[in-house]
Amino acid sequence: MNLSPAALVFLLFAATFALATACPRVESKYALVGMDPSSPCCKDYSKIKFPKSIVKDYFYTSGNCRLSSVVFVFKNGKTGCADPNAQWAKDLMEYIDSIKHSPSSRPTTVPIPSA
Q1: What GO terms fall under cellular component here (predicted)?
Q2: CA 16 to CA 22: how far, in whole Å?
Q3: Domain with 69 in it: what CATH number?
Q4: Where are the alpha helices (DSSP H) in the chain?
């Protein structure tokens, strides 16, 4: 089979385009780390620690999941899975709890004068 150079270039372009559209682009090295997009369970734990500066919240996966995990929610809306027994994850959860319950994070209330 003898292919012309133009046909070869076209086939390479078509293959590259097919791969680019089939594989979603990950915008961050922390994006969807270990999270199974088809279920609220994690398939594995992140191998990197998430910096405090990108995390806004966390939650635990349900007891129905194969892997007990803590899911960190990032400020950009993405999520990442971690081992809930890992010390860095415990420290990060404690930090988030302290921020969420600090006086500066509570809404200020203004007393309503009685008539």
Answers
A1: extracellular space
A2: 10
A3: 2.40.50.40
A4: 5-22, 87-100
Flag whether 52 is in a domain: yes
pTM score > 0.85 for this model? no
Into how many domains does the chain fold?
1
Print the domain residue range for 89: 31-102
Residue 76: inside a domain, yes or no?
yes
Q: What is the pLDDT of residue 81?
A: 95
Residue 82's DSSP bridge partners are: 70
Contact 83, 91 (CB under 8 A): no
Express each pLDDT in 27-76 by its tens digit: 344 444 555 555 678 999 999 999 999 999 999 998 889 999 999 999 99
Please answer whether residues 82 and 72 qualify as being in contact, where contact means their C-beta atoms are separated by less than 8 angstroms: yes
